[in-house]
Specification:
Layout (H helix, E strand, L loop, with lengths): L2 H13 L3 H15 L9 E4 L12 H10 L4 E8 L4 E6 L6 E3 L5 E3 L4 E2 L6 E4 L3 E2 L5 E2 L5 H8 L5 E5 L20 E3 L4 E3 L1
């Protein structure tokens, strides 16, 4: 299946999820995240959800990370939709968020962390395939961002659904995940 058709199908599938389904699936994803060893991770970049698109709510995941890995610095993105670039802003109890023009919560200000200091990136996605490739919304924010990070940065995708068999139209610039977390397991690539 190609990315365009995948996007359409998964967006429709996510739209059909009830609040109860989303809560149960989120809890399963958090449970699977507990299978990852965060002891060597210092800085984690994690996206904030687009509620209108029924993305996995990462606020409980941020809370979970603070509980199981209090040594980890969490950074969240502030996006520039003209350049399709992101800044990594430290997220702590004092971080003030505001909704941007695209319905995404972002930090108003804060300490910027350079790309090369990030050990792990938790990426948004619509779905992923069994080879570790992801389908996002097609703007390329995270593919660009991940190429700017260190080569050894750990890339994890979060998904409500199990992987599809194969994304047919993978391109040279598509960045492969190291892991994906679905409700049933932590997938390794």
């Amino acid at each position: 299946m190609n990315k365009e058709l995948i996007r359409k199908n998964i967006l429709e599938k996510r739209e059909m999820l009830s609040d109860e389904n989303k809560c149960a699936l989120l809890q399963s994803v958090i449970d699977q995240m507990g299978n990852y060893d965060f002891s060597k991770i210092k800085t984690v970049h994690i996206y904030l959800p687009i509620k209108q698109k029924n993305e996995i709510d990462t606020f409980p995941i941020i809370h979970f990370l603070r509980l199981i890995a209090p040594h980890v610095t969490i950074v969240i993105p502030r996006s520039n939709f003209k350049t399709f670039e992101m800044q990594n802003i430290i997220c702590d109890d004092n971080t003030i968020l505001a909704e941007n023009n695209y319905g995404i919560m972002e930090p108003v200000d804060g300490t910027i962390v350079p790309y090369n200091e990030i050990d792990m990136v938790i990426c948004p996605l619509l779905t992923f395939d069994k080879n570790g490739y992801r389908v996002g919304y097609g703007k390329g924010f995270y593919d660009r961002f991940l190429t700017e990070c260190r080569e050894d940065v750990i890339k994890i995708g979060l998904c409500y659904f199990e992987p599809i068999e194969k994304i047919e139209d993978i391109e040279e610039h598509d960045v492969k995940l190291n892991y994906a977390i679905s409700p049933s397991k932590l997938w390794t690539f």
